[in-house]
Amino acid sequence: MNCDTALLLETVHFAAEKHRSQRRKDPEATPYINHPIGVARVLTHEGGITDMEVLQAALLHDTVEDTDTSLAELEAKFGPTVARIVEEVTDDKNLSKGERKQKQVEHAPHCSHQAKLVKLADKLYNLRDLNRSTPNGWTAERVQEYFVWACEVLKGLKGTNSALEEKLEELFRQRGIQL
Fold first, then answer.
1. Distance between CA atoms of 21 and 23, rounded to whole angstroms?
2. Fewer CB within 10 Å of terminal CB in the chain, N or C?
3. 23 by DSSP, 3-state: which?
4. What are the angstrom distances between the C-alpha of 45 and each of 2, 31, 39, 61?
5. Would you tell me how many other CB atoms lie within 10 Å of the CB of residue 147?
6. Which tens digit of pLDDT belongs to each residue from 68-78?
């Protein structure tokens, strides 16, 4: 096994352990780990991304926000670049949901290229997931509001990866939203 493969598997294992008891909000209660793995897959298969640190950050992008993982732990295990990318895409849970959403819109244009890639893939995965299955307790109006908000975030990511941006534009077009 080559070094990159071993590193990627170690990252998947770490993320799976951290998210082991979590489920997505869809009616099927999909295992949460499917999400970060899916985000990394979007990057490789659709975005053409092979940067190992970006792929690792994609796999780890929700660990600090949604588990007991610290940035120091990520830095010790995966290095400062991976930890920095994860930090850039992590919401501050001390803020209200509305404040966190506004911060994402404001922060997006100022993220590193690596963090922008993770954000693009994360939004693409989440929007596809919303089209596939409405989360428990969500109305059609709430789904549409999420699309509108995601579009505002993505305006700050334009010029990052044309392949991913084209796929996102198509999702927005289907909903009557202009990116």
1. 7
2. N
3. strand
4. 20, 21, 10, 18
5. 20
6. 999 999 999 99
50, two tokens: 């092979």
DSSP state at residue 31? B
């990116």: which residue's tokens? 179
Q: State the pLDDT confidence band at 178, using cuts at 50, 70 and 90.
A: confident
Does residue 89 contact residue 122 with C-beta atoms inside 8 Å?
yes
Q: Which tokens sit at 52?
A: 């190992």
Token pair belonging to 118 = 């993770």
Q: What angle do CA 172, 42, 33 make, to 5 degrees?
A: 110
- CA distances from residue 59 to 106, 135, 139, 141, 167 in whole angstroms, order as listed: 24, 22, 29, 30, 21
Q: Which two tokens stand for residue 136?
A: 């428990």
Q: What is the dihedral of CA 76, 77, 78, 80, to 10 degrees?
A: -10
For the chain, how far is it from start to end, CA to CA, in angstroms?
A: 42
Gap between the Cα atoms of 51 and 98, Å rounded: 32
- The catalytic residue positions are 65-66
Query: How confident is the model over 97-114, as pLDDT tens digits?
Result: 999 999 999 999 999 999
| Rounded-to-integer distance, Cα 46 and Cα 171, Å | 15
Confidence of residue 31 (pLDDT cuts 50, 70, 90): very high
